[in-house]
Amino acid sequence: MSKSLKRVRAALEGEAADIRETGEAKTALQAAAELGVEVDQIAKSIVFQGQITGEALLFITAGGNQVCMNKAAALAGEPLGRAQAALVRAQTGFAIGGVSPLAHKNPIRSFFDPRLMDFALIWAAAGTPHHVFSLTPARLLEKSEAQLSDFAS
Fold it and tell me: Using one digit for the tens of pLDDT, what is the confidence trace for 78-89?
């Protein structure tokens, strides 16, 4: 078991979370099809970088939604750009494609898409590109220490 998956598993200890290995699901749509759920039940973890501060920021969004850069920048208080892989790994401890919304190596300011709250259960990356976990939206919001915010386009 990878160190990243172990870290997520430890963060979920005591939760009614189901961790599953997935196949080659590279998109939220593919993950949803494999899990037999709606695409918006997939919680994507998207990391941007503040163009002034260099700070990494995490946007946890429903699988069918896109992050509106103007809304996201307003929440961040600065223009945003895509984060480089090295920053993502240094901040979260995860590689792009497996970034979990929780169990980060370093604290990260996080925002949570309200659309995810419409479901009884949602699925998110469990630290690897081939593992996901389920949790209620309320618990993921709490455990991720994210701010419920409107940033979808």
Answer: 999 999 999 999
